[in-house]
Structures are given as C-alpha cells and as structure tokens.
Amino acid sequence: MDITALGVTVGGVVLMGLTLWFFFGKQGGSRPARDGGLYSCPMHPWITSNDPTAECSICGMKLVRGTQK
Ligand SMILES: [Zn+2]
User: Fold this and answer.
1) CA 32 / ligand 1 centre spacing (Å)
2) Residues 6 or more apart from 16 whose CB is under 8 A from it?
3) 44, 33, 15: which is closest to 63 by C-alpha?
4) In angstroms, what is the span from residue 35 Cα to ligand 1's centroid?
5) Ligand 1 centroid – CA 47 distance (Å)
6) For residue 49, what are the β-bridge partners?
7) pLDDT, tens digit, for every residue of 13-49?
8) Largest Cα–Cα distance in the chain?
9) Looking at the whole model, is its pTM more than 0.70?
10) What span, in angstroms and rounded, lies between the C-alpha atoms of 16 and 10?
11) How far is the CA of 10 from the centre of ligand 1 (A)?
12) What is the edge-to-edge ordering of all strands in the sheet holding 48-49?
C-alpha cells in the first residue's frame, strides 16, 4: 500500500470537508435576524404595529418595516 497516496487522499477529503463546512456554516450563520412583520414610525420608533397599513398615532405617518436597529 502506498502510504503517500493514502495521505494525499485523506488530506484532500479533509480539505474538501472543511471547505464545505466553511461555506455552508457561513450561509447558515448569516441569516438576517429580522423580526419580520413589525412596522414602526420613522419619526417615533416606539410606535410599532404588526399591521402594514397602520399609521403612527402621533404624526399619522405610514409605518415602515423594521428600520430601527
Ligand atoms: Zn410618528
């Protein structure tokens, strides 16, 4: 048995596994953490609603989705 060929094969498999883990791990970890569906007034961020057609009770502006960080 050629130990050099075996080492290269095992090394290649490990390298490929690490590459796949890197890409898939990165994709899984970079999912945007939005609360999705929460709307707030640009001027009064504490005025929030789940209704996309809701308006701010203070200034009457249409609420926008998830602008506050
Ligand atoms: Zn407002």
Assistant:
1) 26
2) none
3) 44
4) 20
5) 7
6) 39
7) 888 877 778 878 865 544 444 555 799 999 999 999 9
8) 80
9) no
10) 10
11) 62
12) 48-49, 39-40, 64-65
